[in-house]
Amino acid sequence: MTFASLSLSAPLLRAVEAQGYACPTPIQVAAIPAILQGRDVWASAKTGSGKTAAFVLPMLQILGEGRRGVGQRVRALIVVPTRELAMQIGEVVRRFSRAMPAPLKTCVVVGGVSKNPQRMDLRGGADLVIATPGRLLDLAADNALRLDDLELLVLDEADQLLSLGFSDELARLLAMLPRRQNLLFSATFPEDVCALASRILDAPVRIEADPAETLRSGVITQRVIEVDTAKRTRLLRHLLEVHGWSQALVFVSSRHAAEHVADKVKRAGIEAAALHGDLSQGARTKALADFKSKQTRLLIATDVAARGIDVPQLPAVINYDLPRSSVDYVHRVGRTGRAGESGTAISFVTADSAAHFRLIEKRHHLSLERERLPGFEPSEVSAESASPSPLDAVENAPLAPLDVVENAPPAPLDVAGGVKGRRKSKKDKLREAAARAAAVKS
Ligand code: AMP
Prior knowledge:
Blueprint: H1 10-18, H2 26-36, E1 41-43, H3 51-65, E2 74-79, H4 83-97, E3 106-109, H5 115-122, E4 126-131, H6 133-141, E5 152-155, H7 158-161, H8 167-175, E6 181-185, H9 191-200, E7 205-207, H10 213-216, E8 220-226, H11 232-243, E9 248-251, H12 255-267, E10 272-275, H13 281-292, E11 298-301, E12 316-319, H14 326-333, E13 343-349, H15 354-363, E14 370-371, H16 391-396, H17 402-405, H18 426-441
Parallel strand pairs: 1-6, 1-7, 2-4, 2-5, 3-4, 5-6, 8-13, 8-14, 9-11, 9-12, 10-11, 12-13
Helix pairs in contact: 2-3, 3-4
Adenosine monophosphate binds next to helix 3.
C-alpha cells in the first residue's frame, strides 16, 4: 500500500515524502479514504500508530479544496484534552500544510497563556483551530470565533475529553455546532464515549485497533524491577549509567514528586526537567521542547505527558511511580517504541505497589518477570493486605481531568469533580466561584 493509492493530492504526497514516511500505517490506510469521502469515523488506534497524520492529511486536503474562512468563521476544529497535545498537532499541521499551494490558516487555542494573541490570530476567521475545550469556549463567548459554519470536527482522545470536568464543556461546545463531518478518536470505549458516539456520529466507519496491542507486540520491552521506595532515584541513576540511554521519560504520580526527583537527579549532574500542571504554560512548553530537541536527558513528568505526546526516538520510559489506571499504563509505555522503533519500559514496583501492578498486568493479559538488581534488592515488607490496589475504584470511576489527577493519590473520584480528601484544583475552585457568583445573581 502506498500513500498515492489513498487519493491524497500531489502536494500532500510530497509533504509525506519529505517527512520520510515510506508507506501508510494501518490506521492511515483505513481512515484517510473514509475521511476524504466525507464519512464520519469512529476509531481506536494503538499509541504511536500514526493517528495524527491519519486525520490531519485528509482534513488538509478537504479544507484546501473548499472555500476559505471569512469573518470570524472557523471551518474545522480539533479538540484535545491537553495543551501540549494541541501544540504538537499544530506543529504536524504546519509541517504538512507548508507544502500546499495556498497554506491554510491554522490557530492553536489553549489555556494557560494570554488570550489576546489568540484573539488577534483568530481575526478574519481560520481554516483550522486546534483547541482545548475551556479556552475555546471562552473565546467563543467573547465572539472571537464563530463555529456555526463548522464543516469538520475532530475529538481526539475522546475518552479523556469526556471525563469529569470536560464533559460539560464538550456538551456546551456541541450545542453550538451545525451539522458537520465528525471524527472521533478514543483509546478506550467506556459507556460515555459510546453514548457520545451514538449522539454525534452519522453512520460512522469503525476502525478498531486495540490500543493495548503495543504492550503485546514485542516492540517495547517491558521490565519490572522490585525495589524499596527510598532507593528508586539511585536505581534510576544506575539504569541510566548501565544502559547509557540518550534519554528517558520518567513518570511520577504527583507534581511534588516531579520536582523532587528532578532536583535529586540534577544534583547528581544529569540534565533533567520536571513537567507537571503547576508550572506556567511557558515552563511546560519549554520543558517539553527541550526534551524533544534532546537538550535534556530526563523528563520527570506526571500523566500530563502520558497522552499523545510524541518524542521521536525515545529509548526508555520509566514508571518511577505506577500509573493509577491500566489505561494510563498503555499511554505511558506507548511514549517509547513509536513508529516502528523499539523501546524499553521499566516499572519500579515497591512492596506497597506490588498488588496494584499485578492488577495492571491482569487487565492487559501480561505476565512480566520480576527482577531484583544487585545492590537494589528490596527489604521492605509487602503491605498488600493493608493497602489493596485502588485499580478497581479508579477504573470504575470516570477519568478525572489531568489537573485533578496529578495531585491525587490512587483514590476513588467523587462525583462533584474532585478527588475525595484532596485539595481542589484551580479549575474546581474557578467553577465553584462561578457557581457561587451565579447563585448570588439569581
Ligand atoms: P502519532 O501516533 O500520530 O503520534 O505518530 C507517531 C509517530 O509516527 C510520529 O513521530 C509520526 O511522525 C510518525 N509517523 C506517522 N505516520 C508515519 C508513517 N506512515 N511512516 C512513518 N512514520 C510515521
